[in-house]
Amino acid sequence: MVDTANHRVEIGRNSSHFAATVRAYVALTKPRIIELLLVTTVPAMMLAARGLPSMGLLVATLVGGTLAAGSANALNCYYDRDIDAIMVRTKNRPLNHSLVGPRSALVFGFALGGLSLVLLWLTTNALSAGLAAAAIAFYVVVYTRLLKRRTSQNIVWGGAAGCMPVLIGWTAVTGRLAWAPVVLFLIVFLWTPPHFWALAMQFKQDYAAARVPMLPVVATEEVVTSRIVMYSWAMVATSLLLWPVARTGPLYALAAAVLGAVFLREAYALRRRVREGLSAHSGRLFHWSITYLSLLFLAVAVENMVPAGWR
Question: Within 10 A of 82 (CB to CB), how many other CB atoms are there?
């Protein structure tokens, strides 16, 4: 009876350790970031198809895109494990504990990347697979290795990797690029600095301790908030440009105008609080920026579910 009880305890421990290891590998892929990337992929595919694309293509593109993003994020965790251990925001990432070793994370990241490219190549087309490869390489090499620790413009240019899902989604449907997905790309590109700088303002001390020159570390809050306002205007203007370029209907135009107005109000409110010497509360803009992008792309999706005669 004692041996049986000990055996059950051992099985329980092994099962618990296995589940914790699986959770650690999943955490390496940064699922919350992937969710936001997929939010932009599906509407881009619907805009390209002017409706709902085939379920097989949709699933294949989403799975391939998820694997590609997971690959880039896992490799980012591997290369940034030294500074992740310093920063409060990232200290609980898997590589700061013993469940996943650096070598295992590196192999995992490359394996996900290879799997994603093969899947996209076989189920969509070579262009979509190539764009996914470019996104992984750009995020890992250009942003993580070359820009992040060297320039305050890191997130401006490095954020281009996060814009690639709209191009991948569009080309998965059409097999080619066009001006409409370029505009979608630019919307996300211009959205990224206000979104991330608002977050970086909250964790300024973290980045300073890790010697990462995010803009809020090397510039005053007034400079940061002024640039947030500047990029916000450019983003809103670009979002409205999609109306004539992609020939979207009034539903999207109205959504872009209203959501853009709210975004600008929040950006100006943040700058005003800084100029008045009040606490910035940049988290409010950060959280709204996620809602903004989600609702804007939801408007693209919903409009393409409406019969053409009703738009």
Answer: 9
CA-CA distance, 194 to 224, in Å (whole number)? 9
pTM of the predicted protein model: 0.91
Burial class of residue 298 in the structure, from the number of CB atoms within 10 Å of its CB (0-12 exposed, 13-18 middle, 19+ buried): middle
Which residue, among 148, 166, 274, has the nearest Cα to 207 in the 3D structure?
148
Q: Hey, what amino acid is at 85?
A: A
With a cut of 70, list the residues of the chain below it in pLDDT. Answer: 1-15, 17, 98, 306-311
Give the model's pLDDT for residue 308: 55
Q: Would you state the pLDDT for residue 15?
A: 59
| Boundaries of every domain in the chain | 27-310
Q: What share of the chain is helix, strand, coil (3-state, %, to 5)?
A: 80, 0, 20
* Fold of the CATH domain 27-310: Farnesyl Diphosphate Synthase (1.10.600)
